[in-house]
Amino acid sequence: MTPLDWLRASGAQGDVIDGLARTGSARDWETLWRECPRGDWLLGILERLGVDHVALVRAAVGCARTVDAGGEAAARLLDLAERWASGEAAASEVAEATRVLEQASSSVADPGAEAATRAALAVGYGVEDRAVLSSAPAAAAESAIVTAMSRGDASLELAIRRAHDACAHAVRAAVPWQLVAPCVARLG
Question: What is the number of H-type helices and E-type strands within the chain?
């Protein structure tokens, strides 16, 4: 079964299937892993494949760190999530830091910082619920895009491409193909 067939059968979102079909990056599983243009798509696919939860959290942290972390509380949450992934912090510590950041997030006025805060929150919630982790790269990309556009740094198209590339790279750095291959092999 091709990756696109598997994605269709597993109920993946249409924009993911259409986007991967358009780019040609889903010819086979290793090519999809190597060439997927968006971190949120790649992290969501890896979650559906059953890749190790700790690796997914590390990938989401990497995506959230591609942008300004959204302040001190967000940075603390990301640090705790990394420590959790290394077995040095309890999930309850991450949950408490998530609660603190969520309370602080209501006062964030800057759209770029607000999106970066949502990326960190997705990491925090993702320690308990792996299904939410793919929203971290989406929010991080949104933060990078909004920030770049507000500064006039790039065209919209270039800002979008750079943001998604950075998150896809962060996912691949945290989840090497060697962790993905056994999951793909289980598909049959």
Answer: 11, 0
